[in-house]
Design brief:
This protein has 14 helices and 13 strands. By secondary structure, the protein is of the alpha/beta class. The strands form three sheets. Strands 1, 2, 3, 6, 12 and 13 form a six-stranded mixed beta sheet that branches. The chain has a five-stranded mixed beta sheet with strand order 9-8-10-7-11, sandwiched between helices. The longest helix is centred in the middle third of the chain and has 14 residues.
Length: about 375
């Protein structure tokens, strides 16, 4: 079956530039749009306290403490370990969150559930630092309204032990089903990001399944279960499992740890590598709060983004022309899987943008049955 999910790296310059503040000039960088503007006065001044639900490594405590000092805010940070946990917290509503860090493919899911609100694009005064090549307007703008502001992007590659997994086996997701690796496979406990990989391995469209496709995926999961050493619950779990040697090959929810151990490597299987664009989603309350916008803009500055990339070796959102000026030699060279300096059109075409399936609840039932062994 021909797949129609590939996304080209063609840049919608005019549309994204419109998202940048008052796009009437240039930042002097061909990879960014103008940032000149003043935030509108329609936003409400908050109570000086905001709550962010985020991921490990995204908003580390020392950075947040400095932001509190610089912005005069109290910033509450809650960290999650999976897409499913993030959504559950948002639905529960107990955290009274202002911001969620969520991928573009989940916009419709959160929007339809009434969990997020449109963003005042004029108040995103650092939009000009966002890499135009991310082409985020295609996914983040719906009916002319901006629903998400990019923060970081990345992939979910194969992670492997170089001594245990030969070169040919690194080119296909089918390796995770090879009996040779029984009890030595690592995958994250996250239906949203893992089931598309299973579908790619099976030659099934990742985000839209027929009844026959469901049977194919169930069969694949049944065969995968005895292969799995552990379902990891966090980024730290993934690192520990691979570095310790408990697993020899896996599906990387994170891959920054790969550079820490010379015996590990990563690859982009030929069936396609899931790609994500994480963003700030604004709750209805947060979308009206000037304090929330001040924090988001603070984290889109070159200073914050370069520190984020240099300390975590993740990509962030800066274009290569800005990143080259402030990335450490390690980050720019691609240590830890940083791809900002290596992203070619050919590589980009091999990435499959994670999207929210229409049948997420049914997929969760399938995933839970897989975990239960039923």
């Amino acid at each position: 079956m021909k797949r129609t999910i590939w996304r080209s790296a063609v840049v919608s310059t005019a549309l994204i530039a419109a998202l940048a503040i008052s796009a009437c000039g240039s930042s002097g960088d061909s990879g960014t749009a103008s940032t000149s503007a003043t935030a509108p006065t329609t936003l409400k001044k908050g109570d000086g306290e905001i709550t962010v639900i985020t991921w490990e490594t995204y908003h580390d405590d020392p950075w947040v403490k400095q932001a509190e000092k610089d912005l005069g805010l109290k910033i509450n940070i809650t960290r999650v370990g999976s897409v499913d946990e993030m959504y559950a917290k948002a639905r529960a509503g107990g955290t009274d969150a202002d911001l969620y860090l969520v991928d573009s493919g989940s916009i419709k899911r959160y929007k339809d559930a009434g969990l997020i609100a449109p963003i005042d694009r004029q108040a995103i005064t650092r939009a000009g630092n966002i890499n135009l090549a991310l082409d985020y307007a295609k996914t983040n703008v719906i009916d002319g309204e901006l629903w998400a502001v990019p923060y970081n992007w990345g992939i979910q590659p194969m992670v492997f032990n170089k001594a245990a997994v030969p070169a040919a086996a690194r080119t296909t997701w089918k390796t995770l089903w090879d009996p040779k690796y029984k009890g030595q496979v690592m995958i994250p406990d996250d239906a949203y990001i893992t089931l598309p990989m299973v579908a790619l391995a099976a030659g099934v469209p990742p985000f839209s399944w027929s009844a026959a496709d469901y049977q194919t995926i169930k069969s694949q999961l049944d065969k995968l279960r005895p292969q799995v050493k552990t379902l990891t619950k966090s980024f730290n779990d993934q690192e520990t499992t691979m570095v310790s040697g408990d697993a020899k090959v896996g599906y990387g929810q994170t891959y920054a740890f790969v550079s820490k151990d010379p015996k590990l490597g990563l690859s982009f299987p030929k069936e396609g590598t899931p790609f994500w664009l994480d963003n700030y989603f604004f709750s209805p309350k947060g979308a009206q709060d000037q304090d929330v916008y001040n924090f988001v803009n603070y984290t889109l500055t070159e200073e914050w983004q370069c520190r984020f990339a240099n300390q975590t070796l993740q990509n962030g959102i800066l274009p290569a022309t800005l990143a080259k000026k402030c990335f450490s030699a390690k980050a720019w060279a691609g240590e830890g899987g940083n791809l900002v300096s290596k992203l070619t059109p050919e590589l980009r075409k091999s990435f499959v943008l994670l999207q929210a399936p229409a049948d997420i609840d049914k997929r969760l039932e399938l995933w839970n049955a897989f975990k239960a062994g039923t």
